[in-house]
């Protein structure tokens, strides 16, 4: 038979445990919040009804949601002004009504650039395992 008309499908290797997060540590103005298997969802914003209240000048009342999916923590921006993720190595990602995956450690600025709104900086660290 002619093998040129045969489609081969190869399975993807399973993710190893080392690629998944065990916990996410958030630190805002000396207040710590830990996300793990007991807390897999967190709302962030300046409104008092959020799990993490951030008093940034450009932070929306309900600015973002951080959640656990497929072994990793993700951030979904739902704001007017956007969110900036800065990894420890300096890599910067801007989200505006979009979603990004958190990895390693770094800073999240809810409302724009860190130098524009330093009151909206949240330090994060993903714990592998």
Short description:
It is built from no helices and 11 strands. It is mainly β. It starts with 20 loop residues before the first strand and ends with a strand.
Write the layout of secondary structure elements.
Blueprint: E1 21-28, E2 31-35, E3 41-45, E4 52-53, E5 64-69, E6 72-77, E7 83-87, E8 92-95, E9 99-101, E10 105-110, E11 121-128
Parallel strand pairs: 3-4
Antiparallel strand pairs: 1-2, 1-11, 3-5, 5-6, 6-9, 7-8, 7-10, 10-11
Can you characterise this structure?
With 129 residues, the chain is mainly β. The chain has strands at residues 21-28, 31-35, 41-45, 52-53, 64-69, 72-77, 83-87, 92-95, 99-101, 105-110, 121-128. It has a six-stranded antiparallel sheet, with no helix packed on it. Strands 4-3-5-6-9 form a five-stranded mixed sheet, with no helix packed on it. A hairpin with a 4-residue loop joins strand 7 (83-87) and strand 8. The termini are far apart.
List keywords for this structure.
mainly beta; 11 strands; 129 residues; 6-stranded antiparallel beta sheet; 5-stranded mixed beta sheet
The helix content, as a percent range, equals: under 10%
Report the span from N to C terminus.
48 Å
Number of strands: 11
Percent of residues in beta strands?
A: 35-45%
Assembly status:
single chain
Total DSSP helices: 0
Characterize the biggest β-sheet: 6 strands, antiparallel
Radius of gyration: 18 Å
Secondary-structure-derived class: mainly beta
Low-confidence stretches: 9-18
Would you list the SSEs in sequence order as H and E?
A: EEEEEEEEEEE
Shape: globular
Summed over residues and divided by their number, the pLDDT gives a mean of 89
Order the strands across the largest sheet as they lie in space. 2-1-11-10-7-8
């Amino acid at each position: 038979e002619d093998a040129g008309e045969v489609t081969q499908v190869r399975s993807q290797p399973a993710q190893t445990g080392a690629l998944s997060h065990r916990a996410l540590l958030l630190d805002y103005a000396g207040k710590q919040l830990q996300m793990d298997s007991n807390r897999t969802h967190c709302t962030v914003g300046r409104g008092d009804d959020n799990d993490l209240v951030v008093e940034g000048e450009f932070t929306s009342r309900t600015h973002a949601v951080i959640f656990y999916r497929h072994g990793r923590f993700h951030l979904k921006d739902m704001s007017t002004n956007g969110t900036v993720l800065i990894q420890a190595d300096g890599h910067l990602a801007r989200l505006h009504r979009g979603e990004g995956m958190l990895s390693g450690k770094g800073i999240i600025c809810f409302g724009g650039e860190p130098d524009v709104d330093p009151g909206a900086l949240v330090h994060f660290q993903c714990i592998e395992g």
